[in-house]
Structures are given as structure tokens and as C-alpha cells.
């Protein structure tokens, strides 16, 4: 059963000056969300500092917007313990809390902090987990997301994805009326956006490398479509495909050594694989129809793509090293923009329902198609690296915005970034720094 939360979190504060105002609206959440209290972390040091309160607020927000937890408002807390010695479990039993998170922050060298947190089972009256995190002012948001990831995994058994990022394209109008298009990267909750590249021409199809450090994308600078790979942290980039005709829809292989592309260098849009190190190009499809939007399976064995070879856009599959093409989708007259779940057991895609375009999930074990979104023009779905949520672009009052939905359709949220027309979001993979607990 679904229920309307009608919860709007106006998160206009941030840890760090580079965060942008953001509204996260949780429009629908799951029944049975776990009650949890995240107490403002205490400050142990000279003077007064609210850094602990800000860290706890991020942890609380992460858990709340997952839809799996119901976080107790700070104003309703009967006490504010900072460590196990301060906890009176009866206070939290009275409030109906299943779990409790407390913590402390103390100075740790020049510009550094040591953050400690503990997670408790209220009814058993015992600690479930606790960690110390050395961090810096610049990394406080990431530290808070890591804490939320650990709590989420301990209580749900599934890895969290709060300490990951999203990339997306923003189109806006400058003061002189000209259009500016930017490729941006932000935290998974939309905060701390960083501009990767800006152009007066279209930017399209961002795709994360498996290492989470590079993005491939299509740029129309110099009035011609070309595919670039750019390092997120250094800004260094290289042009990897600029053939005659279409150069589009880059998709990384799981090992990060190849890109699947849509090229029309031989006349018709077909699926190719480019070896990044050798520049060797392998053609996978050969058909008079349009083949586009490739995506790799997590094991690297297959590539799914969109084709109208059957008369209408549908999803097809081809072995990554070439071979027989087989059709994947059969329900409905339009299915496109497919990509695999991290476990390879399902696809997210765009399907047409009446005259509307919706985000759906196709279970590859039984071919069941479940429509998850309810917009009129929903597009560009991308799985979170833990497979629990799907981020996508939608239209709200004519403006492109980002939204997310859980894979079971029970949790929905909207990320209203305070900038221009937003589209083509893609969720980053896990990296070496956020995949495992410390």
C-alpha cells in the first residue's frame, strides 16, 4: 500500500559554500518505514561549532529520502546523547524508535575533524556498529553520506548509495538571451554541483566510467557531434570519436576499456565498440533500420540497444563481441533507452503508456514489465549502484527536473534543482572510496 508523505525538505543550508539551494520532495513513501532517531552530533572542542548538527542533519535527510526510514524530528527528541554513556534507552522506547544514531565531532589537526558515530538497537539496548572518521572541512558532506551508507546497510542488509554522485545536463539562458549548456556533477542528493564543461552548443549522453573518475559525453562544439572522455577531477579530456555523420550514445564496458557507440560512418546508425587504448573499432549491428542507445550488461557479455527494425522502437540484445541479434521487449509499441540493473537481472527503460512516456523496469527472468513513474514525459532512467532506486528526467510545468523512484515503485521523490532545464541524469558507480565500509 502506498501513502502520500507530503514531506518537503527545504534544504537550503549546506556543509561547504559550494552547495546549491535544493528542494527534495518525497512524494510517496513505503508503508512500514523503520523509525530511527539521528541525534545532532555533539562538539567536543574549544568554543562552539555546529558542524556536528550539520553532519547529523545530512545523515537524517539521506535516510529519510530513501523511503526506508522514518526519521524523528529533532524538536521531538527527549534527550540529545552524544555517546553510549549518555543513552537512556527508555527515552527512545517511549518515542517508538527502533534505532538510534549518536555521535561526536572533535578537532583533529589544522582544518581537520574526527567524527565518531554509534548505531544502537533501542529495544535490545545494545550497540550495533560504531566508527571513527578522520575528515576535513571539504569532505564533511561525503563523511555524512558514508555514515548514512553504513547505517542503511546495517539495518537493511543492502549497501547504501548516498556517498555517490550524479551527472546531468543543464540548459539555461544567459543575461544576453543566449543559451548555455553545462554538464554538471553533484552529490547523489543534488548538493554541491560542480560544472565539468560548458558550451553554447548541445551536450548530450553523459556516461560514467566504471572507476567513477571519468565521463564520456557527446558535444556539438564546432557544429559537429563528437564523443569526448573527460576526467572529472582534473578536467583533462580527449576526443575519441569524430567520424562523419552521427557520433552518439557512448556507453562504457564494465572493465572501462571500451565504449559502445552509435555511429553512422558507413551510412546508417549502427552499434559499434571502440577500444579506447588501441582505437580499434568493431561493428556489431548491420541493418537498414536505426540502431542506437547501447548499454552493456554487468558481466560484459551483452549489449542492449534500441532499434526500430521491427517497425516500432524496441529493445534488442547482441553479444558484445558480435553475433545474433535478439529482441528483448515485446509488451507495448514503444520501449527504448534501456540499461541494466547492477545485478543484471532487470532493465530500466522508457515505455509508452497511452500518449505518455514512463520509466519502467523489465524483469529479465519472467519478462514482466512494471511501470514505475507517472509523468507525461519521463526519460533517461539510470539505476543507483545498489539497484534500489532509479533516477530519471521529467517535465514539471514545462521545466526539466530530476526525479527518482524505487525499483518496486513504492518510494518517489523529486529533486528540484534551482537552475535551468535539467535532463539526462546518470548515477555514478561505486568507487574504491565509497564501496566498502572503513
TrEMBL record:
<keyword id="KW-0131">Cell cycle</keyword>
<comment type="subunit">
    <text>The Tol-Pal system is composed of five core proteins: the inner membrane proteins TolA, TolQ and TolR, the periplasmic protein TolB and the outer membrane protein Pal. They form a network linking the inner and outer membranes and the peptidoglycan layer.</text>
</comment>
<dbReference type="Pfam" id="PF04052">
    <property type="entry name" value="TolB_N"/>
</dbReference>
<dbReference type="GO" id="GO:0051301">
    <property type="term" value="P:cell division"/>
</dbReference>
<dbReference type="Pfam" id="PF07676">
    <property type="entry name" value="PD40"/>
</dbReference>
<dbReference type="GO" id="GO:0017038">
    <property type="term" value="P:protein import"/>
</dbReference>
<keyword id="KW-0574">Periplasm</keyword>
<dbReference type="InterPro" id="IPR014167">
    <property type="entry name" value="Tol-Pal_TolB"/>
</dbReference>
<feature type="signal peptide">
    <location>
        <begin position="1"/>
        <end position="19"/>
    </location>
</feature>
<comment type="function">
    <text>Part of the Tol-Pal system, which plays a role in outer membrane invagination during cell division and is important for maintaining outer membrane integrity.</text>
</comment>
<feature type="domain" description="TolB N-terminal">
    <location>
        <begin position="22"/>
        <end position="128"/>
    </location>
</feature>
<dbReference type="InterPro" id="IPR007195">
    <property type="entry name" value="TolB_N"/>
</dbReference>
<dbReference type="InterPro" id="IPR011659">
    <property type="entry name" value="WD40"/>
</dbReference>
<dbReference type="InterPro" id="IPR011042">
    <property type="entry name" value="6-blade_b-propeller_TolB-like"/>
</dbReference>
<dbReference type="GO" id="GO:0042597">
    <property type="term" value="C:periplasmic space"/>
</dbReference>
<protein>
    <recommendedName>
        <fullName>Tol-Pal system protein TolB</fullName>
    </recommendedName>
</protein>
<keyword id="KW-0132">Cell division</keyword>
<comment type="similarity">
    <text>Belongs to the TolB family.</text>
</comment>
<keyword id="KW-0732">Signal</keyword>
Amino acid at each position: 500500500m502506498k501513502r502520500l508523505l507530503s514531506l518537503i525538505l527545504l534544504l537550503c543550508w549546506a556543509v561547504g559554500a559550494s552547495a546549491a539551494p535544493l528542494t527534495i520532495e518525497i512524494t510517496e513513501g513505503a508503508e512500514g518505514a523503520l523509525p530511527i532517531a539521528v541525534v545532532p552530533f555533539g562538539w567536543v572542542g574549544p568554543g562552539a561549532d555546529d558542524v556536528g548538527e550539520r553532519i547529523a542533519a545530512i545523515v537524517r535527510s539521506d535516510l529519510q529520502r530513501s523511503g526506508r526510514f522514518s526519521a524523528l524530528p529533532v524538536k521531538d527528541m527527549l534527550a540529545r546523547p552524544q555517546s553510549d554513556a549518555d543513552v537512556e534507552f527508555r527515552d527512545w522506547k517511549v518515542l517508538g524508535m527502533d534505532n538510534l544514531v549518536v555521535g561526536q565531532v572533535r578537532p583533529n589537526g589544522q582544518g581537520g575533524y574526527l567524527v565518531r558515530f554509534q548505531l544502537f538497537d533501542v529495544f535490545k539496548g545494545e550497540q550495533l556498529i560504531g566508527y571513527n572518521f578522520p575528515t576535513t572541512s571539504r569532505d564533511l558532506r561525503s563523511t555524512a553520506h558514508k555514515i548514512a551508507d553504513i547505517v542503511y546497510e546495517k539495518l537493511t542488509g543492502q549497501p547504501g548509495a548516498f556517498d555517490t554522485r550524479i551527472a546531468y545536463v543543464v540548459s539555461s539562458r544567459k543575461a544576453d538571451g543566449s543559451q548555455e549548456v553545462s554538464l554538471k556533477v553533484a552529490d547523489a542528493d543534488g548538493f554541491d554541483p560542480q560544472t565539468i564543461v560548458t558550451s553554447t552548443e548541445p551536450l548530450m549522453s553523459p556516461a560514467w566510467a566504471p572507476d567513477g573518475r571519468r565521463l564520456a559525453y557527446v558535444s556539438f562544439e564546432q557544429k559537429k557531434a563528437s564523443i569526448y572522455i573527460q576526467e572529472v577531477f582534473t578536467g583533462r579530456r580527449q576526443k575519441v570519436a569524430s567520424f562523419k555523420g552521427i557520433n552518439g550514445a557512448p556507453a562504457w564496458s564494465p572493465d572501462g576499456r571500451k565504449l559502445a557507440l552509435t555511429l553512422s560512418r558507413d551510412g546508417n546508425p549502427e552499434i559499434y565498440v571502440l577500444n579506447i587504448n588501441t582505437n580499434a573499432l568493431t561493428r556489431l549491428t548491420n541493418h537498414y533500420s536505426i540502431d542506437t542507445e547501447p548499454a552493456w550488461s554487468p558481466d560484459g557479455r551483452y549489449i542492449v540497444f534500441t532499434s526500430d527494425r521491427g517497425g516500432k522502437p524496441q529493445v534488442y540484445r547482441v553479444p558484445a563481441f558480435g553475433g545474433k541479434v535478439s529482441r528483448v521487449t515485446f509488451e507495448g509499441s514503444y520501449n527504448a533507452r534501456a540499461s541494466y540493473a547492477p545485478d543484471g537481472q532487470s532493465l530500466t527503460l522508457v515505455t509508452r503508456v497511452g500518449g505518455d512516456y514512463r520509466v519502467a523496469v523489465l524483469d529479465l527472468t519472467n519478462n514482466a514489465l512494471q511501470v514505475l513513474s507517472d509523468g507525461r514525459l519521463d526519460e533517461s532512467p539510470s539505476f543507483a549502484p545498489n539497484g534500489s532506486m532509479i533516477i530519471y528526467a521529467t517535465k514539471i510545468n514545462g521545466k526539466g527536473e530530476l526525479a527518482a523512484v524505487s525499483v518496486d515503485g513504492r518510494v518517489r521523490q523529486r529533486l528540484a534543482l534551482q537552475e535551468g532545464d535539467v535532463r539526462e541524469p546518470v548515477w555514478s558507480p561505486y568507487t574504491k572510496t565509497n564501496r566498502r565500509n572503513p
